[in-house]
Amino acid sequence: MCGIVGYCGNKNASQVLINGLKKLEYRGYDSAGIAIIDGDDILVRKCKGALKFLEQKIADETIKGSVGIGHTRWATHGEPSDTNSHPHTSSDGSISIVHNGIIENYAELKAKLQAQGSVFLSQTDTEVVVHLIDKLYKEEKDIFKAVLKALHTLEGSYAFGVICKDYPDRVICCRKESPLVVGLGKGENFIASDVPALLEHTRDVYYLGEKELAVLYTDHVDLFNFEGERIIKEPQHVEWDMDAAEKGGYEHFMIKEIHEQPKGLTDTMRPRIIHDAKNTPVDVNFEESKMDDAWKSAKRVVITACGTAYHAGVVAKYAFEKIARMKVDVDVASEFRYRNPILDKDDIFIVVSQSGETADTLSALRLAKENGLKVVAITNCVGSTVSREADDVIYTLAGPEIAVASTKAYTTQVLCMYLLAIKAGKLRGTLSDAEATKLLTELESIPAKIQEILDGKEVIQKFASKQFNKDKIFYIGRQFDSATSLESALKLKEVSYMHSEAFAAGELKHGPIALIDPQTLVVAIASEPNLYDKIGSNMVEVKARGATVLVITQDGKAFESKTDEVFKIPECSSTLASLLTVIPAQLFAYYCSILRGCDPDKPRNLAKSVTVE
């Protein structure tokens, strides 16, 4: 959601904070602000709109302070405005705070504070926190005790950064259900919502755990739990380099990350595939895994996730059923957590989250754990909450993904699911050694085949230039291709704001075909030769009603008379083709976004990591 940065050191804090916020614009971008201890006062500058407007606002000022906090906002309470922007400050200007998350009992607290004389200026839940801390500070006469006491009153999810003018040598931060990272420098220390904001300065970090606080000074960091007890933890070293978090010559992060998929897949795959003496792939090994026995005896796999990660789970359903012959249920995490799901302790529960901090997915994980299930987490973020709370964690090694619309995180998630399905198939005896070797050999060829698609991306760009004004875009497919259609439609609507939907191809005549007209584009995904005739019939049906048809397939000749355009992907087993068929769809979404004048990296109303409901 929102982006938080903080600095305590000897440099000019304003520049450090602004540079950090630039790395976090993908988390929130409807307003931005900074608060810096400048002499005896806290200087606050904030405004509605993109970060560049804040930069313009302070361009002619000299801000000398070296301790401060900053924020980019994604609105939850109160519309985007200068007043609702963070940081929020106490009435006397002595305390300032930035916040990511939602305070669920803010209305009750606000009423009590107003009755005691607090004057509120904004519509945000965050302002309640700063007035509460201010009230407790006047009682406790100690800012750390005031923050600590406030935490026991607040309900909801939050990460905070707090400064107080009476304590100009420190920044206090804490987290509950929202991510926060502490960066450890030499003569300076940092906080941030996400690692990219820190990489310019350090790769040594503390990932704050659930209900933990940190107090940053210039020369050290103290860690505490919510009971005020000091805790000790070892710093972790981040392996990402700066180039991975920069655009590297590409116009947008989205197209850069689309092009990074061959590397991300190779990096994710290489350490997990076992080769024999002849360098033939023979098995899968997850060094992180402690659950081989559980996989052997499991009766069912339950997968929960949100958005793009959920679509990876739908692909996985087909993979587990086909490869490992396991029953699989896939649930949207936001639905799963609010019903009374039927769970068995012999089920294996898989949660998928790029950030590892998705609120609904975390709640689903905890519900599964309460019911005694073994949980496997698939995430891109080391040290994230899901990685700590799951029984097993499988990291996608995609590197930082900055664009809000996920691309390389999706394909690496799908890859991990394929590897898990092959591992499960081997353990359960449903997949022979020869079949496993065949699948693994083909998996190893996937990165090069994706590169081949990327090398021919101009065909998709040209097609997008003719279709970007279509009123409706339907994606259709069967089996694995139906799952890929879901992600393809989501990607297009996310970044181009074009109305796109996905349907299992056989369902067209059961309703959706009523919407077909000459302003409709139908994208048919066809990677299963046994079903070419079936989906070919669907293509004929929509063409007869005026639709333009694009087919993504390995065999263009099979559809020559049934389509307006063919995008041919390299030959691939239909079982694994989901890793290829999604690439043209990602490219099409990107080019449509550009042609329509949208920003593909920061779609309106969306945030990278949904850490609140």
Descriptive terms for the model:
613 residues; alpha/beta; globular; 7-stranded antiparallel sheet
Weakly predicted, low-confidence segments: none
Helix content: 25-40%
Largest sheet: 8 strands, antiparallel
Main β-sheet, spatial strand arrangement: 3-2-4-1-10-9-11-15
Radius of gyration: 25 Å
Overall mean confidence score, pLDDT: 90
Count of distinct strands: 27
Q: Beta-strand level of the residues, as a percent range?
A: 15-25%
Shape verdict: globular
Q: What class do helices, strands and sheet pairing give?
A: alpha/beta
Structure description:
With 613 residues, this protein is an alpha/beta fold. It is 35% helix and 24% strand. It has 18 helices and 27 strands. Strands 3-2-4-1-10-9-11-15 form an 8-stranded antiparallel β-sheet, covered by helices on one side. A 7-stranded antiparallel β-sheet has the order 5-6-7-8-12-13-14. It is globular, with a radius of gyration of 25 Å. The model has no long low-confidence stretch (mean pLDDT 90).
